[in-house]
Amino acid sequence: MSENSVNKRILLVDDSETVLMLERMILKGGSYELATAKNGREGVAKALALKPDLILMDVIMPEMNGFEAIRDLRRRDETRSIPILIVTTKGEEESMVTGYESGCNDYISKPIDSLELLTKIRSFLGE
Questions:
Q1: Which of 4, 13, 40, 92 fits as disulfide partner to 64, beta carbons 3.0 to 4.6 Å?
Q2: What angle do CA 80, 69, 57 make, to 5 degrees?
Q3: Measured at the alpha carbon of residue 63, what is the angle toward residues 61 and 65, in degrees to the nearest 5?
Q4: What gap in Å lies between CA 35 and CA 39, rounded to an integer?
Q5: Which residues on neighbouring strands pair with residue 56, listed in sequence order?
């Protein structure tokens, strides 16, 4: 089975059902296998179980925020190299710095620009 015939797996981590629905709508045109998690703790657990090709991570979530989840994923050998895009309303510079220091690969501010999101996802997935 060639690498190209396998759908890329993307994990969407956000406590907002509306945002998850929007992300699924934006990504439905691509041949992606989508999984969702409602908070950082669940996101880490699903990332370990599914080994996604890319993670979209919100910041403000219950139980474990996005920065904490990213730091947790970066400490683990099996998830260290997964590209992580932060998708958040917190677009101010301080949050962006914290995001990059935590280990994210890129940053997208809400409201989500679908073209920007798709462009960044395709870039990280090598499409």
A1: 40
A2: 90
A3: 45
A4: 13
A5: 12, 85
Give pLDDT tens digits for 17-76.
999 999 999 999 888 999 999 999 999 999 999 999 999 999 999 999 999 999 999 999
Residue 127 banded pLDDT, cuts 50, 70, 90: confident
Residue 24: both structure tokens together: 């699924």
Looking up tokens 């993307």 gives 10
Alpha-carbon gap, residue 1 to 70, rounded angstroms: 32
Amino acid symbol at 23: E
Beta pairing partners, 38: none
Q: Give CA–CA dist 11/50, Å, rounded.
A: 9
DSSP reduced 3-state for 26: helix
Taking the CA of residue 104 as centre, how many other CA atoms within 13 Å lie in the half-sphere pointing to its CB?
23
Of the candidates 74, 24, 71, 63, the one whose C-alpha atom is nearest the C-alpha of residue 40 is 63
